[in-house]
Amino acid sequence: MSLLSGKTCLITGGAGSIGIATARLFLEHGARVMLVDLDASLIESALASLAHPDAAGIAADVADAEDTKRFVTATVRRFGKIDAVFANAGVFGQVAPVTDYPDEVFDRVMRVAVRGSFLTCKHAIPAMNDGGSIVLMSSVMGLTADPGVAAYATSKHAVVGLMRVLAKELAPRNIRVNSIHPGPVANQFQTAIERSLDHVLKTDATAFLDNVIPLHRHADAAEIANSVLYLASSLSSFVTGATLPVDGGMSS
Questions:
Q1: Rounded-to-integer distance, Cα 110 and Cα 93, Å
Q2: What is the C-alpha to C-alpha distance for residues 162 and 185, in angstroms, rounded to an integer?
Q3: Is there a domain that residue 190 lies in?
Q4: How many domains does the chain fold into?
């Protein structure tokens, strides 16, 4: 069953493990996929790993309005009007109490996750077909919070607000908008976070989190991609304005 046959899909943060896993799954379901990431060399590596004629990529800064217009235009020129957007780009920042949190780090996290998601949606929506889908990447930290992650948790909660506004604005066009909330994923992004948490927790953060997660393990990127596919496809045809946890029960 090809859930995205002939559909044009745009994925920001496309060169990361979740972006690549989602692109691979979308392609398996008949989609045409444009990957967007800041680093051109990572885009090239991602496309090489996908090795698919219906996959393309472009280096761009999602938090820059002109760059965003450029990658939306490139997507439409290459594959036609957009059917699904996965706004996946984000950065973690660092671990520190609010009173010690560096202003410039806070601003960078908000710039990529919040401004980047806003601009991606702002410029992609006019280029979308009615009946499409937008999936915004949040996090388990967009449903809860922990000490030390002020920028990350704030940005991920803000994405939920944007999602809820868009879900109501775009309902007349039957464009569904939802957010996805992964827990810890076994990838380089999460490993870097956990190494920064080791000294805070005074123990191995990976083992600590595996103990906290009810399913007692990290997710695989492909498991997150499965849930993105659900939200991007007709399987979720009556789902909009929803926050979908994919966190092994961590937020329950």
A1: 9
A2: 24
A3: no
A4: 1
Active site residue 152: yes
Q: Average model confidence (pLDDT) for the chain?
A: 96
pLDDT at 109: 98
pLDDT above 90 (res 1) = no
**Helix-helix angle 17-28:40-50, to 10 degrees:** 40
Residue 48 domain boundaries:
8-184+220-246
Q: What is the pTM of this model?
A: 0.95
| Residue whose token pair is 């123990």 | 203
CATH number at 33 reads: 3.40.50.720
78 domain residue, yes or no:
yes
Residue 124 lies in a domain: yes
Other beta carbons within 10 Å of 234: 12
Catalytic residue among 96, 152, 180, 244: 152
